[in-house]
């Protein structure tokens, strides 16, 4: 029996590309500034960074798998275009690893920007040594199965956030955010403006000129007497 186009075992078309200039621009913005300008609701929580320090920026190629099975992650790596981020909904299950060193090497050779895994990885030392961007929920020595089912380029749930294929993923030492593909210009401009404002604030703080009157004013409104 063919599983083509069956819910739960299917591959959808690749999403629209994101201009290289847009990816470069977001690479210069820290995740808190991006998060603040999406009302702090578009961030991924609960994943940890397994590489050293390289920033993760790229288009989401999404994968939904059965916990403990990585067949469709292998297929996604083969489909990925340079700069893509493989984003995997593994059901937050961490008893079996979904990716390891060999898959990391395949992905790196193909130009994949990194992994976001709501599940477990293994070969932790290899990810650290390669500084290959990888955010995951946990790690274990136990390996996966490769039988399916699974889906590629469908909406996925990762760390409390729904991510669509084609969203822009940004990850750094503070965590991960996903920017919807149709809001990139808006969010970028707002985040860049915040970065400029905060730079001015930092300069004022160092000069002892940062205005702090808002604290007592707010407390007074709450009926607190200093």
TrEMBL record:
Any Pfam family: RraA-like
NCBIfam families, sorted: PRK06201.1
Organism classification: Bacteria, Pseudomonadati, Pseudomonadota, Betaproteobacteria, Burkholderiales
Organism: Paraburkholderia susongensis
CDD domains referenced in this protein's UniProt entry, alphabetically: RraA_family
Stored InterPro entries: RraA/RraA-like, RraA/RraA-like_sf
SUPFAM superfamilies per UniProt: RraA-like (SSF89562)
GO MF entries: metal ion binding
UniProt protein name: Putative 4-hydroxy-4-methyl-2-oxoglutarate aldolase
Signal peptide: none
UniProt superkingdom: Bacteria
Keywords: Magnesium, Metal-binding
Residues binding substrate: 100-103, 122-123
Cofactor section: Mg(2+); a divalent metal cation
